[in-house]
Amino acid sequence: MVRISIPTLPKAPLLPPSGLSILPLPQAASYLAQFLENGKGNTVMLTGAGVSVDSGIRAYRGEKGTYSNPNYKPILYHELVEDSDRGDMFSKADVVHSDWARSFLGYPPVRDAQPNPTHIYIAALQHLGLAPKLITQNVDNLHRKASSLLSPTYDKSSILELHGTLAKVHCLKHRHEQTRDVYQDEISRMNPIWDQEAKEAERTGRRPRTNPDGDVELHGVDYRSFSVPPCRVCEREKVKSSMVKPNVVFFGETITPAVRDESLHLISSSSSLLILGTSLATYSAFRLVKLAVEHKKPVLMITTGPTRADPFMGKRLDKMDRVAGDVLGKYLDEAVKTSTGKEVEDVKRYLHTGVVKRPPEVEGPRAEG
User: Fold this and answer.
1) In contact, 362 and 53? CB cutoff 8 Å
2) Bridge-partner residues for 302, per DSSP?
3) pLDDT at position 175 over 50
4) Confidence of residue 366 (pLDDT cuts 50, 70, 90)
5) Can you say whether residue 207 is alpha, beta or left, with left for phi > 0 and alpha for psi between -120 and 50 degrees?
6) Where is the Deacetylase sirtuin-type domain (predicted)?
7) How far is CA 156 from CA 127, 143, 202, 220, 345, in A?
8) CA dist 319 to 134, 254, 353, Å?
9) Do 243 and 265 fall into the same domain?
């Protein structure tokens, strides 16, 4: 029997706020400036769900590090897919129907979300060459939207999506890939009653609670009427059709070797690591911080609440327990004042433009998740 749980933070004693956490904002921004200057344009950024809260996407954890919805049962990879003796991948029909129904309803809020100021600030750091490479745990595509605002021709390889993206889907057997919007439209055509309900929920603002992975939790729903389209690429190529899955890493699934190796290479070849808006509960992200510390690279973490990396504080890792966007915005305001050039003008044009639309259930400080 496979037992998989949602990643949680290891129990650790609460640490008193560091000196960096209580610095006035101008001094905190100055500290970030010095950190980036020492990085000499080779700082890698690592982001998590916290940076997307102001775009209306809930973080998994609140400001105290606890899971925000402890009764929620996410989509688990081993429930969705099994490996048969013949080596064929097949799905359990009831699980597939329920998971795709939940994903069908949860995708539109993520698809429609717009970059908030923090996304713009992070894109600005990349555009200005201050921290050109970004590793994100987020699957919401908002970092790419922000980068395309500053530069429609931005280097797409500069953003590594550690856990994939909701913007695409693929079939499991042949890895045929297509855009999520195309597949979403096909689901809508095959499920007119569900589509009508989804549109009514959007019109009235009664959308179900959406998690950062685009999944929602539904109760008392009969999923048997929900139809899941097969892979049309398989059909066109006249090969055995396969189940289609969002291009995201499900709970219980491992990241691909290519993504793992690229993330480790980015850390190994960097001069420093800037961590923004994450508790680092997932091991795929935590091991990157662990690697940076082991390689004696300076690490600065700007996030709220406890994190998995807190025991590294004082071992080449510094932490500001505060909202990352506030520090980034203040730093960039000063950085572009006396600078010139096309990239600077691009940043000035969009610097404080992002859209702030907080999730309705989120109260209090902007949890960094």
Assistant:
1) yes
2) 276, 320
3) yes
4) very low
5) beta
6) 22-339
7) 12, 10, 31, 42, 21
8) 19, 28, 27
9) no
